[in-house]
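Limitations
The structure tokens in this dataset are predictions for the assembled complex, not deposited experimental models. Users should treat interface geometry with appropriate caution, especially where small molecules or nucleic acid strands are included. An illustrative entry is reproduced here so readers can see what is and is not provided.
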Amino acid sequence: MIEGSGAPPRLFCRLLARALPSDTVGRSIHGDLLEEFHRRPPGWRRAVWFMAAALHLAGVFTWRRLVNGVKAILTPASVGDDVRAGLRLLRRDRGTATLAVVTLAIGIGSVTAIFSALYGSLLKPLPFRDPDALVLIGDRDGQSPPHVVAGNIALANVLDLAGVATTVSAVVPYRDLTLTLAAGGVPAARLRAQEVGGGFFALLGLPLLAGRDIHRDDERPGAPGVVVVSEQVWREQLGSSPLGGTVAIDGEPHTVVGIAGRITQLGRPQVWRPLRPEARALRRNARQVYAIGRLAPGASLSAAQVELDTHFAALRRQFTDIAPARGVAVMPLADWLIGERGRTLLWLLAGAVALVLVIACVNVTNLLLVRAERRQADFALRAALGATHSRLVREMTAEAIALSLAGAALGLVFAFWAVRLLVDLYGAALPRAWEIGLDARALAASSAVALAVAVAVVVIPASRLPRAGVRRGLPADARGHSRTSRTQHVLVAAETGIAMVLLAIAGLLVSTVSQLAAQDLGVRAEGAVLFDVSFASAQRSPEATARLADSLLGRLGSLPGVTVAAGATRRPLFGGNNTAFSIAGRGDAPGFLEIRDVTPRYFDALGVSLLAGRGFRDVDARTSGVALVNRTFERTFFPGASALGHRLTLANSSLSYEIVGVASDMREFGPTGEPRPTAYFPYGSGPYGTTSALTMIVRTNEGDPMDVVPDARQALQDLDPHVALADPITLADQARSRIGRDRLAVRALLALSGAIALGLTAVGLYGVTAYSVARRTREIGIRRALGATQSSVVSLLFRQGIAPALPGLAAGSMAALFGGRLVESYLYGVRPADPRTVIAAGLLLLAAVAVASWIPARRAARVEAADALRS
Amino acid sequence: MPRPVFLGEFEQLVMIAILHLDNDAPVLAVRDKMEEISGRAISRTALYRTLERITEKDWVDWTVDDEERPERGGHPRRRFRITKQGVALLSASRKTLLTLWAGVEGRLR
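Predicted assembly:
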């Protein structure tokens, strides 16, 4: 080449040389371009011309090579050959193959499991007709952003809005409740139910298996009671009897008019009946129902929101009892069903398993790199005998594909169990958990991931394969080794960093949950069980209901092992029911008050102590006018003084109650919620009257409190076969549930991801150290022969082994300090950038990598000098 | 009867240019000649691709120039010539064209 200022740009010459084929044709094309260059007048234009021409040629030839390569790979005969060769190679090296397959199975399996969860929960279309047009209409409170339904809305308001709205058609209100259904000789059952407006099934586009939809006529006052039941209820409770039969719902006769298929949405209701007339009372300020509507063709969500806002403002002008803070919100039904926290949870997990997959890929890349290094001489020989570069690459790819498909197959088994475990343990925290399962899509996803993994793990080792005509690896080439170990070090650093982030985040959640679990909820959680009963029946008078409740409490109290039984109108530790109130002698309305009606031994049953005054007596149930308050109430409204003897009056009521006692606080809203001012009233004479739905609390003195449930069920059956016992749970479990199932799920799954990342990183580092130590056997022998002690050799190898992990550890720690923010909403009692957690995670990881590099170092140092030198 | 083989326009242009150059021409000369005959710029990659294709079909072949040329940076130079098969094809193609035009040439004036 002519040197000097007139020479073509070197970089582009090199580029051209790489891109063009190395045969005569390729070199002559290169020559043609150089010749043409020298024919042109010197100057910068010539240089620019050359660069453009070289780039163009290089691009065209690279593309052609790529296309030809793909064509060659896709020839069936060559694929068969390559797969056979790949399998043969794997059989020869079973240890590496097994390790790689198991590593990939963990990575691909986790991804498949989480993909299934993501798909079932978030991505799968709702099983309704044209689900994207379905919207939920509900209350919007002052602070919430638009398109977020904050709660139920008054039925009267929704019906008025539905009457005038043009952007939303076919608005149907509904509300959730539980009902007791009794039919024939089958024991009564408490079922998840919905009261719905006419045309509910038609709106959703759900065909009934038999019978008819609920009609608007069914909602009229005085219309005969009708009910639609799910197929399961029809089979199990009604014994597959024909339509038109009569069942008792909360004691009232209803005609079965329809059978619906399984609905896994909207709280999985089992029974539907028309919205009852009493719910239609025109209370404009109540929170009663949600409504589902369908956007009119061409209408957008924001147009609907604007229109409903306008109509709601008109309603507010017309009805002065609508509170100023009330509004209306419309949001996509899908968003409502999925919910923000569930969505975050799943994406968080997806991120975690993606990182686990990356670590698994890094490990397998390292394994293949080591194998390629070991087989360098073999490759060089084959290249010298005429094997083309692409042939060797194809073989290596086939090997990687075989590995990753085997990994995916094993991973599917793993994913199958993982998905079941995920749904069993954390179904409550996942949106649409009942729709999660492994299916053909998961299979396709895992195969796709496997192929992507195969390509990912083969890129680096394949780039090290000898090219035709290049003599490398014959004899063993020191430069190749150092390049390999440099790459390995970078890979180890990367996986250590990723593992560090995962571990630190898992650590934050572990300490959150232990903080929450350590929080005293104010009850004696062990040894008590809760369950719901409903005595509802049209024929029963309030007195009869009260007598039934009394007899039930008496029977429960006399069961073997039971020490106390009590009842309450609200499940303890299950949130609250509040109302406005006032204190006699004070003009202002001091605020809101949590209220519950309870039976006399309620506080004993929960293990809540009485701080002042007296508890309830049996006689209080009949002589109205007393109340107990909690400590927070006294502190808030009577700071430094006693609340005893004062009287309080609830909003919308003329009755006043004298405070006769003060009980200690319970954290009804869970460990993160502060206790609220609460008043307790005697069941029977409190604000709820003789309500028919009660939660029973039964404390036992020995064994598992759940053991008492069958006896309790029997006692109830003896009293009245139409009354069912529902949702038994121990008080301890109820307390635990307040920690938040989503928090528990995130903790467990991230802890698992962290543990897997830790294990894989340790295995990866072990592999790298073992390989580098094995390669240095001679050097170790020489060191030993020259007088190095065993321990000095161990320490040298150990230090060198652990060195690549350290930069990863440092970078990972920095990243972990920021990574904590991702889970901030799940944290309690610990900061997202908690240095203690990061240090603990770092030490754990350091210990793991130390062990992983110490084991091979010690084994190598045990080798006798003479043996090492002879090897 | 074997299927008749037709030459594409670009292929004809390449082969006619080689003939113009005494049936022994390096690539750059071929391209210059093609541009001269056709009066338009000839794409480098199209030319290489066509040369490769018609070499594979045995219509042209090439030899490597022995002469040392420093401006080529030590890279070989190919010289192309038309094979017997290629000449036969060109002549058949010319004949076809002449037959096609017979009797209508006057209309173009």
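Some entries come with short summary sentences. For this one: Chain B has a mean pLDDT of 88.
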